[in-house]
Amino acid sequence: MNVYDCQDPEERSAGLDEAVNALGRGALAVIPTDTVYGIAADAFDARAVAALLAAKGRGRQMPPPVLVGSPETLDGLATEVPGVVRDLVTAFWPGPLTIICLAQPSLAWDLGDTDGTVALRMPADETALALLRRTGPLAVSSANLSGQPSANTAAQAVAYFGDKVAVYLDAGHAGGGVASTIVDATAERLTILRQGALSRAELAAVAPELAEDLAAEQPEAEDEVAAGEPEAADTGSAVDDAEAADTEPAADAAAAEVPTGEGDAPR
Asked: 253-264, pLDDT tens digit by residue?
């Protein structure tokens, strides 16, 4: 287990290198996001994702969200993406918005019981983005044990996971400590599954149909999901937030978890 001070340029560089190596061999890393800290695994390594869920004390019914390093990744991971979702991505990525989409059926991954969905987020955190641009998509749930508060510092994450995580990237206090907002885009009309850092009014300015969303608000998930988030609450069909991260997908992966994990991500 190694902790790197990412507020020091040399340590940040070394920490990113070690995190890339650790994630590449199937180990776990804790990363900062703009919401909360997230616990991350290679999204395409089923054993690593299973280890992430086990570390949090979760089962496959609460899959983690997936954090990405660029908006362009959306079409590689999701299918049948509505134009309004692209508008939301343009307006709020990178940022605390987790979107649950239909997953590309050809993807060779196993995030858990996602029912064919995936929760996606691009975090507004320089360290997280630097890592994601080197590793590709990461499964990220908020850095906490199931039922416990999300970690806002690397030290809190160390207390939760200890040597179950190979690398901790410490960038100081995470973002605003509030999970990402989760929007479900898998049905005919958009639905807000969790109101987090982004308000309904902010989203409705881009997607007017959300102003008329009469669906009952979902209670905040325990997370981030991701990661989620790595984000403070995870939800589960593909959502947890992370997230990372804000931290947990498809309903904090971040930290995302309504039709998936807990999420934003950091979630």
From this structure: 333 333 333 344
pTM score of the predicted model:
0.82
Check residue 43 and report its DSSP letter. Answer: T
Structural contact between residues 245 and 257, judged by C-beta atoms closer than 8 angstroms: no
Quick: pLDDT tens for 28-66.
999 999 989 999 999 999 999 999 999 999 889 889 999
* Whole-number Å distance between alpha carbons of 120 and 78: 9
Identify the H or E element spanning 67.
Answer: strand 66-67
Q: How far apart are CA 216 and CA 40, in angstroms?
A: 31
d(CA 119, CA 54): 19
pLDDT at 237 over 50: no
- Contact status, residue 99 vs residue 118, Cβ threshold 8 Å: no
- Cα angle for residues 71, 58, 4 (degrees, 5° grid): 60
> CA 231 → CA 80, 81, 243, distances in Å?
25, 23, 3
Any idea which residue has 């660029």 for tokens?
A: 70
pLDDT tens by residue, 151-208: 999 999 999 999 999 999 999 998 776 889 999 999 989 999 999 899 999 999 999 9
The tokens 């954090």 sit on which residue?
67
Q: Answer for the pair 224, 234: CB distance below 8 angstroms, yes or no.
A: yes
- Alpha-carbon distance of 26 to 151, in angstroms, equals 22
Can you tell me the distance from the alpha carbon of 140 to that of 243, in angstroms, rounded to the nearest whole number? Answer: 7
Question: What is residue 115's predicted lDDT score, i.e. its pLDDT?
Answer: 84
Strand-pairing partners, residue 101, are: 118
> Looking at residue 44, what DSSP letter applies?
T
